[in-house]
Amino acid sequence: MSSKRLENEKILITGAAGQVAFPIARHLAAHNEVYGLGRFSKPGDRERLERAGVTCVSADLAWDSFTSVPDDFTYVLNFASTRTGDFDIDLQANAEGTGRLLYHCRGARAWLHCSSSAVYAAAGNRALKETDPLGDSRRNFLPTYSLGKIAAEVMVRFAVRQWGVPATIARLNVAYGNNGGLPAHHLEAILAGTPIRLLPEKPNLRSLLHEDDYIAQIPKLLAAASVPATIVNWGGSDPVSIEDWCGWLGELTGKTPSLVYTDDAFGGAVLDPTRMHALAGRTTVDWRDGMRRMVKALHPELTLRV
Questions:
Q1: What digits encode the pLDDT tens for the residues 69-92?
Q2: Residue 58, helix vs strand vs coil
Q3: Which residue segment(s) compose the domain that 294 sits in?
Q4: Which residues have CB under 8 Å from 268's CB, separation 6+?
Q5: Residues contacting residue 14 through CB under 8 Å, at least 6 positions apart
Q6: pTM over 0.85
Q7: pLDDT number for residue 2
């Protein structure tokens, strides 16, 4: 497989209507036969994917047998994530469902499983390596999230060895772009004059990843798939603080961000990108330009000040 572009492949994307996966599905559908698997419970999701050229297949990872899902895909991109807060449901969907789907599509040339930096134990602003300890770092706000992501990784690791399906497990940090993301939530808070809650550690660093960069890295991450699974951090090459990007959003919109430092805030992580650079290269989108484009896309009515 070329690491530059996917063409003329049959690709399954789970969670295809989501914030991260939709731009990937839309991009790949221009040159491939792309199927999107999901519940499509949100009004308009199916229609938006179909307009982008994606064939939609309704299935629930927690319950369905996948009899209606083809099994002859060359590549599978797993971006589905269930977060009900119920451990039984979330483990059944995120871990068991992933294993059952991987078995169903075990003839694929490669899998890309999108995990999360939430699998790591909290470490402040220390850049985390793939070998660092895992932990339940989201319990206060998303009680099932970290453990669900860890369980899904374990299932993928087992399935890859059991059935010989090459896979890459990519631990995603803060993805954003014209389709939303954490900076987009901060943008809405700034426009509404709502306080943004941050942890007392300053600065609050994150590995910000623009959609143009993660789309460009998809073929390279698939090319890196292996048995046992390749595990890699997935984030921007250079860390950016939430303080800095909120300040920039304030400059663009002419609004002053309200930052509140409290222990009762959503934590995060910053990633060591060394292995990602070796497998997929450096990211290229300057975060200020990415934010500018995001504001224009989400709020075309605004006149940007900078």
A1: 999 999 999 999 998 899 999 999
A2: strand
A3: 178-206+238-268+284-298
A4: 117, 173, 174, 204, 206
A5: 21, 36, 37, 38, 61, 76, 77, 78, 79, 80, 101
A6: yes
A7: 45
Tell which wins on pLDDT, 111 or 3.
111
Tokens 């731009």 correspond to 23
The per-residue pLDDT for 1 is: 46
Q: Which of 78, 239, 94 is nearest to 173 (CA)?
A: 239
CB-count exposure of residue 263 (10 Å: 0-12, 13-18, 19+): exposed
How far is Cα 201 from Cα 66, in angstroms, rounded to an integer?
Answer: 45
CA distance 226 to 22: 25
Query: Do 113 and 168 meet the contact criterion of CB atoms below 8 Å apart?
Result: yes
Task: List the CATH number of the domain containing 102.
Answer: 3.40.50.720
**Amino acid, single-letter form, for residue 232:** V
Q: How many domains does the chain have?
A: 2
